[in-house]
Amino acid sequence: MGRPARSISVKGNVPSSFPAVAQGRDDDEDPGRAAEGPRPARENRLGRELRGRQLCLREKRGSAVGKTKRGKGTKWMAIVDGNGLPLGITIHSASPAECTLVEETLREIPSRYRPHRLIGDKAYDSDKLDRDILERHRIEMIAPNRKNRHLMTQDLRSLRRYKRRWKVERFFAWLGNFRRLVVRWEHHAANYLGFLELACVIILLRGL
């Protein structure tokens, strides 16, 4: 207790490097291992273990995804009946205007179930769209005119039905209750559309 402590050699007490220790341990456990040579590097073995897994190294992308003012997204296009139950639904990129996607959504509905009138918001204010829908499908398009239009063409008598527009918004609110649809995790549009159609089936069963 009274003697001074001897100097300690730092170099002799430092453990050897990790590859040397690993090699010595393997040689002690398996004598025939030395003839096979050293094991591959750790990162190579890790690469073999992660083979087949999906590693996201870049920004998420996918089909039917487009740019908006708030970022990238997917647009839902749906047509519902008078009770707010879905008749047809499609998904598209968020970039194109909604008035250019109406006919594609109508084609998802069988002809015998197609409505006689469509009620849309100001995004569907287009004289060309009104003529095309009426000539090709014999459906009246009801949408209020924008305030910046120079010539108002909307018949105010048919515009009284616009007060039923809230049923469409209620349907989209129902879709928002499904957590799988709020954030899109599927890369392929067909997979995401499948979950969306499954949610529509659940809504239809609840409405029966």
Describe the structure.
This protein has 9 helices and 5 strands, in the order H-H-H-H-E-E-E-H-E-H-E-H-H-H. With 208 residues, the chain is an alpha+beta fold. The strands form 2 sheets. A 3-stranded antiparallel β-sheet has the order 1-2-3. Strand 4, helix 6 and strand 5 form a beta-alpha-beta unit. The radius of gyration is 33 Å and the shape is globular. About 20% of the residues have low confidence.
Write a brief caption for the model.
The protein has 208 residues and is an alpha+beta fold. The protein contains 9 helices and 5 strands.
Provide the residue-averaged pLDDT. 76
The largest sheet is:
3 strands, antiparallel
**Spans with pLDDT under 50 lasting ≥5 residues?**
8-29, 41-59
- How many strand segments? 5
Question: Structural class per helix/strand content?
Answer: alpha+beta
SSE string: HHHHEEEHEHEHHH
In terms of quaternary structure, the protein is single chain
As a whole number of angstroms, the C-alpha radius of gyration is 33 Å
Summarize the helices and strands and which ones pair or pack.
Layout lengths: L9 H4 L4 H12 L3 H4 L5 H8 L16 E3 L2 E10 L5 E8 L8 H5 L10 E3 L7 H11 L2 E3 L23 H10 L3 H4 L6 H19 L1
Parallel strand pairs: 4-5
Antiparallel strand pairs: 1-2, 2-3
